[in-house]
Amino acid sequence: MNNKSGLLYTYYLPIETTELPTPTLPKMACLLQIGKAKLFMIIKIVFVLIFTIGCQHSYAQMDTAGLRMINIMGDTLKGFKSEAASYQRIIGNVVITHENSRMTCDSAHFYFDENMVEAYSNVIITGSNGTQAQSDYIKYTGMNSTALMTGNVQIHDISNTLYSNVVTYTLNTKIGKYFDGGTLQTEETTVSSNEGTYNGTTKQAYFKNEVLITNPKYIIESKELTYNTNSKVIKFLDESRIMSEKDTVITSAGVYDSKNEEAFFTKRTTIQNKDQIIAGNTMQYNDKTGFAKASGRVVIEQEGGKQLIIADETEYNKKTGYAKAMGRVVILDTAEKSRLICGKVEFNNHSKFMLATVDPKLITLVDKDSLYMRADTIMSIRVRDINNLKRTETYTIDKKQKTKLITYNLLLADSTFIREDSIEPKLMMANHQVKIFSDSLQAVCDSLTYSQTDSSFSLFVNPVMWNQKQQGNADTIYLHTKQNKLSEVNLRNASMLIIESAQHKYDQMAGKYIDAYFTNNQINWVHIDQNAECIYYAKDEKGAYLGLNKAESAKIKVFFENKELDHLVFIENPKGSFIPIDKIGDKDKLLETFKLFTERRPQSKSVIMED
């Protein structure tokens, strides 16, 4: 039956009914009554709203005829009208269907002018795709299929449930929103926040303000993030903290794939565990493969702040134990009071072996003096692994070809190298074009080792050392320091010690072995062993030169006073001669093995530090 308002109402009454009230259209304010109380009556009202103007395109996709139907079934119906509104009240076993959704409740008000229903008490909405929503009250608008749900709201979507006190839920898109606190419960994960949106179609959820995610493997606190219940991917949009049994991650932007245990953070991020704290502008890691990478002002703090690593980029694989830092790398060791600067550092956590390349420089500070060293490569190795160190070949595999690399076997060491005792004696090794400078000591050689245990240097292959006006050279040189000051020098094989007495005048000592002893960086006495030779200038009490002494012996001890040679002690078969100052010829002034290496001597720390 049609009317001017464009509404069509159809009534379904029991056959036994003897009275049929005549509805007054379009107000439809009527009360159905049955004279016989014992008769049971079911009323079904079908309201069909026929649009006389063009529908929005989203509606047209759902109903090409331009019709949106709300079907209501219930035990009783009453019509009400006031200046504010006109509505129908349906009571008892109410069933409301609209498009592909079904709603049940204890009672409902239908506002036909607005095509809107208010459902009260035990309200349950069931979608055709299995989604179910329930609450104490729902205000449902048929024009956009949106329900305002209040009181004990629950939206069930397969294995996910959204809990809140107030939710706006759109049935056809399966999107629920809350603004006053809510919780999303998945199989293992619970997410709560002050504001949130859940899309049942895409399984994508958005949470804001006091976000808390709890999972058996981690807890997350955040200001804002998104979470997909299918992919288990979390996207961080603001300050967030991820806490697991082993690590704590602090970030403000990035993605965490909890299913694949993989993360990529795009803003300044900090990861902290019992061993270290690492921060970088970008960071990624995969817990399954063990690979981690950080870029941009990377800072790594280890051993409770005893060691600090700064680099442009770092990589680490916790399964293989291999780590790498690149760019401008700085390693600060507060315990050793040292700083290593280079372009690349490689490290193996199993063997504790470190290799620094790309112009490495090492600075050690003691008191007011600093010792600067540079070489082509600088390594740190446990003493017990010295004999195990070997160069080896490895390959990198890309899509096009294999690339052969030469490396050290200890960088590829596996977990069999791990030892429980973390404190072990270590050696620092430097190779090729080694240079050392401090105010009191300079040295050059081709290779070097330094023991942290006794602060001693071993110089190999054409080594030369200088201390103030003294030069020492031999096949091998051992330097011993205390608080960065020379305490002992051992020259081994083809040894020569030269001390400048005055311009073009040199005291000289030669032999197979020379041991020189120092106090506060000042030479104290020297022991020459095997084929000992000595040339030194004699002076009177006023310091005037008298002549040149030449001596030979199996062993000679040379003693100094106030930085100058004072006297000698000859042991076994001494031979000596004296040449007056005016009788000294050029061939008398120098021992056969005499040679100055002034051009090799580092003159300042800038020679070490400048690229």
Summarize the structure.
The chain is built from 2 helices and 46 strands.
Q: Give the termini distance in whole angstroms.
A: 96 Å
Using only C-alpha atoms, the radius of gyration works out to 45 Å
Silhouette? rod-shaped
The count of DSSP E runs of length 2 or more, i.e. the number of strands, is: 46
The computed structural class is: mainly beta
**Content of β-strand:** over 45%
Can you tell me about this structure?
The protein is mainly β and about 600 residues long. About 0% of the residues lie in helices and about 60% in strands. It contains two helices and 46 strands. It has a 44-stranded antiparallel beta sheet that branches. Strands 33-34 form a two-stranded antiparallel ribbon. The chain is rod-shaped and about 140 Å long. Mean pLDDT is about 85; it is low at about 1-65.
Label this structure with key terms.
mainly beta; 2 helices; 46 strands
List the helices and strands and how they pair.
Blueprint: E1 7-12, E2 43-50, H1 57-62, E3 67-74, E4 76-81, E5 86-98, E6 101-111, E7 116-127, E8 132-141, E9 146-157, E10 160-170, E11 175-178, E12 182-185, E13 190-193, E14 195-199, E15 204-215, E16 218-228, E17 233-236, E18 240-244, E19 248-251, E20 254-257, E21 262-265, E22 269-272, E23 276-280, E24 282-286, E25 291-302, E26 307-317, E27 322-333, E28 338-348, E29 353-357, E30 361-366, E31 369-374, E32 377-382, E33 391-397, E34 402-408, E35 426-437, E36 442-451, E37 456-460, E38 464-467, E39 470-473, E40 476-482, E41 485-502, E42 505-519, E43 522-539, E44 545-561, E45 564-571, E46 575-580, H2 605-609
Antiparallel strand pairs: 1-2, 2-3, 3-5, 4-5, 5-6, 6-7, 7-8, 8-9, 9-10, 10-11, 10-12, 11-14, 12-13, 13-15, 14-15, 15-16, 16-17, 16-18, 17-20, 18-19, 19-22, 20-21, 21-24, 22-23, 23-25, 24-25, 25-26, 26-27, 27-28, 28-29, 28-30, 29-32, 30-31, 31-35, 32-35, 33-34, 35-36, 36-37, 36-38, 37-40, ...
